[in-house]
Amino acid sequence: MTVGVSKAPVKSCEDFTVLPDVGLEEVTAEEIGVFLLPGGDLEPWANHLPLQKLLRELIFRNKVVAGICSAAELVKAAHQAARGPDGAEPAIVRNGVEIAGNIVTAPPHKYVDFAIELGRVLDIYKDDDDFEETIRFFKKFEAE
Description:
By secondary structure, the protein is α/β, with parallel strands linked by helices. Helix content is 34%, strand content 19%.
């Protein structure tokens, strides 16, 4: 499901259009399992109270929250706000991707590693072979 400020179409910096399934006011933390923020111009979102409230609630409920590109800072700030100065899990860094419990963040050029690490957090890999195959194909561009 895609979520927008409203259901109105959103044009990305790369000039493609996303048609949100629902507006932000139509979702609750209970019904979300994973919330991914893709980045872009997030200045309008930095002080967007409904988004900040939802992010904090998701983090408080231990939902998976991920942000890449400029959204990484938004997610980290929400993590700090939800957990308090001493309550945020310490982050580990793997291949340039920060993982702090269910919080995953990365800079824009780490999009493949971001997806791989998000997959680890979501436990999508059947086994080590499946994980290694994913790395070979998407990161190393090796076919079978």
